[in-house]
Amino acid sequence: MIDRLLSSQDGVVTSTHARAAGLSADAIEWRVRSGRWRRVSRGVYVARDRPFTDAARARCAVWSTSHGVLTGTSAAFWLGITTHLPPRVEVTVPLTSSGRAVPGVVLRRRTLDAADIVEVRRLRVTGLALTVLEASAVLGQEVMDRQLQRNATVIALRRAQDRNRGRRGSPAAETLLRAAEGGARSEAERLAVRVLRAARLTGWVINHPFGPYIIDIAFPAQRVAIEIDGWAFHSDTRAFHHDRIRQNVLSASWTVLRYTWQDLTERPDAVAAEIRAFVHRVQ
């Protein structure tokens, strides 16, 4: 029975699990002394005959705490949003919890709402909505966008955000969520205008008409068109094909540069430099 339990838990077991599987305290201690098990922390063990994987690290981190929950980018790994566990595993414990973090664990103290905690493969972890918010604040907009194309919803993200205001990363997540709620394309256009003004670029206009289309930002004299892409979760097949037709028509007589929300937030100086270079090239 204990071998089946170890197989289902990535080679990690707690003393509580082991006793429930029929092992006595002496039997547990014998496995440690004989080298079959390694004690990671008080009451947490790993079997030495199994690989110590990222999943095993995550279990050890959570089970080494009192009422711990896997959070942040560590939770994103457990839920399959990312593919690698961070070098230091993030675990959140209630404000009333005592104890210190074990090596390799970042311990955060915050009492999570029960609505934001789920159990996945016998491990307590933040639910999808809160995990997406926290991971996006660290890893960027593409995390939120990708999950909104899959199982996450804007409504669920908003509810989780409102339940967890003031947490670490909350302002960054709020900015991304507002863009998702209001349509990131319009917000990205406003960001693009700020980038151009900060770079002191001139000669551009917004919403420039060209035939049946409206160019987001245009340099008419140089015929340079700046097109802003919204988030993928707002798109559908019809919108995709419309954008491709639009791109082909514009490209016949304009130099078209396309930028995303991520471009404008993470590399605004590079965006401005690229636009400047193209504008000067065709003058």
From TrEMBL:
InterPro entries: AbiEi_N (IPR025159), DUF559 (IPR007569), Restrct_endonuc-II-like (IPR011335). It comes from the Bacteria. It holds the Pfam family AbiEi_4. Residues 2-46 form the AbiEi antitoxin N-terminal domain. Residues 186-278 form the DUF559 domain. SUPFAM superfamilies: Restriction endonuclease-like. This is Type IV toxin-antitoxin system AbiEi family antitoxin domain-containing protein. It comes from Rhodococcoides kroppenstedtii.
